[in-house]
Design goal:
The protein is an alpha+beta fold. Helix content is about 20%, strand content about 40%. The protein contains 7 helices and 22 strands. Strands 7-8-9-10-11-1-2-3-4-5-6-12 form a 12-stranded mixed β-sheet. The protein has a 7-stranded antiparallel β-sheet with strand order 15-16-17-21-20-19-18, with helices on both faces. Strand 4 and strand 5 form a beta hairpin. The radius of gyration is 27 Å and the shape is elongated.
Length: about 450
Amino acid sequence: MKRKAAFILALMMVLCAVLSACGNTTPKPSAKDPVTKDALIGGYLKKAQAAKGGAYKILMDIKMNVSALGQSQTIEMSADMDIESTEDAAHISGKATVNTEGKPQTETIETYTVKGADGFDVYTCTDGEWYKYHTDMSVKGDIQDVLTVQDTSSMEMTETDTEYLVTGTVPLAEVFDAIKNYIGGYEDIGGLGFDLSSLDLKGVEPAKTTYHFDKTTEEPTGVDIDMADCMKGLVEQLIKALAGSLSGESGMSGIDLSSFIKIEAEKFTISLTNLQFDKDVKITLPDAAKNASEIKEEPEIPDGYGLFGVNELNMWLPSEFESMDVEGYTGAYGSNYALVLILEEEKSILVGYADKMDEYVNLVVQANKSKGVTGADYENGRPIFEYTMTSDGVTYAYYTSAYESEEAFWLVQFACYESDYATLRPLFVQWADSVTFD
């Protein structure tokens, strides 16, 4: 669940980044040149892309009318948050309020995100208590692919006594394509059972953007993003996609969810103010956060899969697998095309022989020399052994992966007919990657 929340938050932040920057621009002119929209937006984009850190305030003002099964209510949301970021960390602080039918609830937000070798550690303070979770979310594209989705040729420039205003629109379809290229895809966001890229956004109203520039310095000071008009079409597409994902479920086929659920956005604005690029930001994790309680990820089980396991070991397997008793193994599961064998070896029994993983791997190699095992390979950070065995004239292929928990070493063997191994091996890798320990 935390991984989903982190992913959705990241998606929203990238969306804000897209809507608060533009492309197809020209370099900022000298002071002698006339002020144009291309020059202003070009200077903004150049500054944003070159920045290695910065700070800004983000304000949200949302009012939505929700109707479900004949019951309706109005939901208002507002937020006032200060954000500081560097290349390796970010700090978000502020307050968010949700008002449902005149009953406001305000939450204080304090979050630190720190980049590590394999993702991000997120520290958040709730009711005075610090919690920590890890997400392996990563980006795969060039940020400039995201920042170049809006064409300044269709934008308009006006001015007041104190500032220049550049207004325009940006189609959500182009934004979502840019986000997908940037983060490498967003299949099954939030576990709803469908790929977000399946949404048909071409007919959805575009988001409206207004960029503010100081009239004296021509520096960017803020961005307003109005998504009220596009939210109706976006919600309609989400409901259609959700209905499609439920069409195969008992009793749900043919039901039009849009006739039961309606969401209208009266207001949906996001404003970035007090923009400061390359501000000298130093983000230091508070001492209290360093002792945060760690939140473990809830397993996210794909469609058609179930959570299987024995003792402290858990893994995903297709739902058709059934439990079996196999002598000499801690647990076993089988289907009509593959067999999974699980062996737990307690560390207390192996003291002096295998106190760490590389020593345990050497023991496994020594015990399986007769099968042609001469050493371990590594796949996705796991020691693995691949070999074949023949019994009664039939040859079987094995993909075996080793693991270490706090109290034991584990071997998980995936076996099938040798003739099926090339086809099933990618699945064996996927199943082996899903292994976790309580």
